[in-house]
Amino acid sequence: MNQNLEVCTFNLNDFNSAIQHNITRIELCSNKSVGGISPEINEVKYATSKGIPIHPIIRPRPGNFSYNKKEIQNMINYISHCKELGCKGIVFGILDKNNEIDLINCKKIIRESKDISKTFHMAFDMTKDVFDSMEKIIDLGFDRILTSGKNKSAIEGKEIINELAIKGHNRISIMPGSKLRSSNVDAFTNNNFIHEYHSSCYINNKFSEIELNKLIKKIFS
């Protein structure tokens, strides 16, 4: 199966640097300090004009992942704009007040996201039982889960990530992320059930093209 590298960028300068390299797609975000929120629509418009698949994060604000009716409607409206602009996918995650998968509101977003790819983001790692949550996410119709295996970094959560990938094989893609770098990606490239990887390629709090090139060589060689 083909390997895929998703690079997460938080501003257009990093975006422009990342797309100079042989990567699969961009997760487009803003505001790295809060873990990423939805970028401005004019940034989405710019990014989609560059000929690389764009998956913007659909997160209207920092903080928790339990949203009220107004926020859900704002997310739906935002997705409509993203689809009009030609985004190939979206990245989102909605939890209820108990930090479990919010099936009702996820279904609302999915209904507005036909014909584009859907990633459940790292809100997944806040759920109590990630294996049960994976089954719910599969049933909802997501294409992949971005996860650090309930840990601060993907490498710390590698055992859970690898087990998720095995159990979800042929049903959903498990994509390791969070501090994934060329120095540790081997922990996942050796798993035949993992074929997608997510990294911001930040070194010392700055996007590094050198690191990106190293990661590309590790994944695609």
Structure, briefly:
With 221 residues, this protein is α/β, with parallel strands linked by helices.
Task: Name the features.
four-stranded parallel beta sheet; alpha/beta; 10 strands; 221 residues; single chain; 8 helices; globular; TIM Barrel
**Helix content range of the residues, please?**
25-40%
The CATH architecture can be given as Alpha-Beta Barrel
Can you count the helices? 8
Kindly report the average pLDDT value. Answer: 97
Integer tally of domains: 1
If you had to describe this structure to a student in words, what would you say it looks like?
The protein has 221 residues and is α/β, with parallel strands linked by helices. The chain has a single domain, classed as Alpha-Beta Barrel (TIM Barrel). It has eight helices and ten strands. It has a four-stranded parallel sheet. It has a four-stranded parallel sheet with strand order 4-5-6-7, covered by helices on one side. α6 links the parallel β6 and β7. The longest helix has 17 residues. The two termini are 13 Å apart. The model has no long low-confidence stretch (mean pLDDT 97).
